[in-house]
Every structure is written in C-alpha cells, then in structure tokens.
C-alpha cells in the first residue's frame, strides 16, 4: 500500500506544474511588454532628445563615433516607428544634423550622403513643415562641402522659389552670392586645376546675372514648360503646360499664316523644344517663341488645303487647343482677329475661325485615371546585367508586367509598357514614349550589378548629378552606349539644369514612396533585405521625361543570395506589388506636377 504522504505529493504535482506554467507565462508576457515599444512618439522623441543633448554638451574630444551612432539609433527608432508623425519628421531632420556633425568630426564621406538622404526625406515628405526649408538649406551646405556648386545653387534657388516667406531666405541669398564669388575665383585661376571642372560646370550660374536676382525674378513670369500634341484624320489636340494659369491676350487664324496664340507675362522654359515638324494631315509644325521680353507665342502651322475651327480652353495650368476640320471650305482669305475675354476654369477662352463659330464645345473632361508608363529596362540585343543564370532584361520585363497588373486591377490606373516583349528600344527614345502619351508618371525598372559580389540591396533613383561613386557606376552601366556621348564636365552642367524644381521635388517624393514600400514590405517577409535608400543619378532614361520619373534597382544579380530570390516568382510578385503600392501612395497624396 502506497503511503499517504507520497500519494498526496503525486496528487498535488499537476497543480504545481500548472502554477509553474502560469508563472512562466506571466513572466514572459511582462518581459515582452517591457521590450515592446508601446511608448508614444512624444515619449520616444523625448528620450532620443535627451541622449542628443548629452552628446552635444560633452567635449568633442571625449565623444567616440559609437556614441554618435547610438544617438542616431535612438532617433531612427522614432522615425521608423512613427514615420508620419511630427516627431518622426523632427527625428529624421535631427538624424541629418547628426550625420553632418559626424562628418565634421570624423571626415567620413559616407556621413554626408546619409545626411543628404534624411534631409531629402524631410523636404519631400513634409513640404509644409517649418523644417522643410531648413532641410533644403542643409542640402545646399552639403553640396558646397562636396564642391558641387551647381547642385548647391539649385538648392538655394529652391528656397527662394518655394519658401519665399521662410527664415532661410536671407541665408540662401548669402550662400548664392558666395557661390558666385567662388566660381569667379575658380574661373580666374585662383583655385587648383583639379577643381577647374567644377567651376566650368557651374559657370552658367553666374555668366550674366547674379543668381539671387535671377531667382527672385522668376516668379513674376508664367513659364511655358511643355507642349504636346495628338492628331487624327480630321481632329487634333495641342496642350500647352504652364507653371501657373496663363494670361492670353490675342489669338487669330488664317490659312496662309496658321494659328497664333499669345501669352502675356510669360517666358519659355530653357529646356522647351522651340519647334517641331510634324507633317500629318492636320499639323505641319508647332513653334513657340518669345516675341518680346515678357510675351510668348504659340504658332501652329496647319494644312492650308482645309479650313479649321480652333477652340482654346484654359484649365488650371494648361491651355488645350481643339482643332477640327470645317465641313464647308471658305473662299475668303481674310484674317479675323479677336481678343478673348476673361475666363473661368474650363470655359472656352477663344474661338478662332473665319466665320461665326459653331456652338461652344462641351466642357473639357479629365482624360481619365492617371497614366503610368512602366519601362522594363534593356531588351532585345541589350541583355543588361548577367550573372548566376539571370538576364536583367527578363527580370525587368516580368516585374513590369506584374506592376501593370496590380496598378490596373487593384488601383484602376491606366498603364503602358515601353516594351511588352524582348524588343530593343534605345535609351533616348523611352522618355519620348511617355511624353507622347502625356503620362503622369514614368517608372523605369532595372536590376543591379557590381564587381564586388557581396554588394546587395534595393535602391531608387531620380534624376540628378549623382555625386557618389556607386551612383555614377550604376548610371554608367544603365546608360549603355550613351555613356561616352557627352563629356563628363558637360554631363554635370547639362543634367543639373534639365529639370524644374517642381519636377525634382515630385520625382524625389515618388522615389521615396516607392523605396519605402519596397523595402518595408520585403523586409517584413524576407530576412537580410538591405535598404540602399533614395539617391540622385545621371540616368539618360529619366532626363527627357516631362513628368515625375524614377528608376528602381530591384537588387544585384551578381549577389548569389539576391539572385536566388530573383529566380522566385513569389519574390518578384512581392516586389511588383510593393512598387505598385508606392506609386499609388504618391498619386493618392497629391497629383503630380508636370
């Protein structure tokens, strides 16, 4: 017979284990709760700020780099946990300042690039914040540190144009005047020859007028930025895009002289093509010209064998011309001139015809959902990067097709692929495809490669000079046969002056949205995904486009780990969905400026 005490121990044992399990579970939950960042953004930011002040109040000689990076990590926790909060915005700005200070102390070039990335994030994602102009100003300072006077001047001009009431205007003006003086010194030989190329690239900034005066005079004139057209057998459409609502003073039409439309208080964008020959059934050519300072004119050369009714309608920052053949050919060659009255949005501005006009056309409607042009890089005879059994051109096409499917099916956008099969399209023609279709966005898809096999990560570019060595190498590979068509010193000056500030800002925001989605969604499902960030780069495929444009590098085919993943349909599908969601996030937040 079993003794009673032993029997009691056995009976109590299940209760003991149950209590033990409950105790362990409570302990684990308490530990997890303590380690989980349940704090509010205010509390997290306050903690990070405390570390920051302790750092900057310490004697610099006693502060190690690890202490600086620890402070950065505290603000990164705020920025990554609450990216859209005011605290997240301030955290991103402070990280930029920390990296800028780290460069001053440790002179590591990468710190400046990291600072630029965070300042660009603040300026792009928080355009209405009081820190936005501060972020742009610090970008200009960093470009000055890099001796890139073209980009520095562009940053300071951006402050005058976009933040004229901000507290950085006077400082920006002083910096621009200093750039002018410095460039003149370089060009006169006061600086070493090694820096002369930078001076030549920046010379256009100061050749006629002080940059401050030039920048401050720009807002007073409406800029004709772009002219596009489409034409059919008996109808044509011409659209003039302007920087602000246009003031039209005069319009007339005759068979011998075509159609002319004058714009008051206007100027031509320096990158606007001033004439184009068309030679179709309606349009024979389009010209834009400045007839005198402050007055521009659009001239349509029309088929003289037919009479045309032309109706101009003004809608926000564009003027739309609808051209339609008249059913009755008139014998008279007289010219009737008419001055348009003031108009409201989307109402007819001017009807130019040599007989009483027909009934006004219906109010112009929007062209439908936004049109996104997806550009699968390379193709045909151009394989792109090759490694580990992968061809870049095939990856680009597959991901582009998936992006198209998601944009159309999930978000209702219109999508056009520059190529839908293994066709070779020259780099310099791809942007024209988007321009001809008046696309709202242009997204070029690529896979990366590097001599260093360990190189990995995803990154997104928008057009710029691309000061980092990696950006230059990536652009050189993607530019292909065009890489040697323009001298290096000319590339920097040309590319830096191609874009309006609006397009640069929109492209930067689009790149930030796509990169954020791409990295965020991939890193949640796959381990070891590396975020290389948003960068500027001198990509020819981006420089001809008239709309916000970016180039996405999906990963390195030369990296064995990333190559294995890119062979997986599920991985490519996840990347495509992430890119589509980033595009949607940008379009939903704000219609792009074109």
Structural descriptors:
594 residues, 20 strands, alpha+beta, single chain, 3 domains, Aminopeptidase, Serine Threonine Protein Phosphatase 5, Tetratricopeptide repeat
Mean pLDDT: 75
Q: Which structural category do the helix and sheet elements fall into?
A: alpha+beta
Query: Could you give a short account of the major beta sheet?
Result: 6 strands, mixed
CATH topology of the largest domain: Aminopeptidase
What is the CATH C-level name of the largest domain? Alpha Beta
Uncertain regions: pLDDT < 50 for 5+ in a row? Answer: 7-11, 32-37, 189-219, 328-367, 480-501
Strand content: 15-25%
- Percent range of helical residues: 40-55%
Number of domains: 3
Number of beta strands: 20
Shape: globular
CATH architecture of the largest domain: 3-Layer(aba) Sandwich
* End-to-end C-alpha gap: 94 Å
Number of helices: 18
Adjacency order of strands in the biggest sheet: 5-1-2-10-9-12
Radius of gyration, in angstroms, nearest whole number: 29 Å
List the helices and strands and how they pair.
Elements: H1 4-35, H2 41-56, H3 65-81, H4 86-106, H5 109-125, H6 132-145, H7 149-162, H8 169-187, H9 196-202, H10 211-217, E1 222-231, E2 235-242, E3 247-254, E4 258-264, E5 266-268, E6 275-277, E7 283-292, E8 295-302, E9 308-314, E10 318-325, E11 336-338, E12 348-352, E13 371-376, E14 386-387, E15 390-391, H11 392-411, E16 414-417, H12 427-436, E17 441-448, E18 458-463, H13 469-479, H14 488-496, H15 501-525, E19 531-537, H16 540-543, E20 549-556, H17 560-566, H18 569-589
Helix pairs in contact: 2-3, 3-4, 4-5, 5-6, 5-15, 6-7, 7-8, 7-10, 8-9, 9-14, 11-18, 15-18
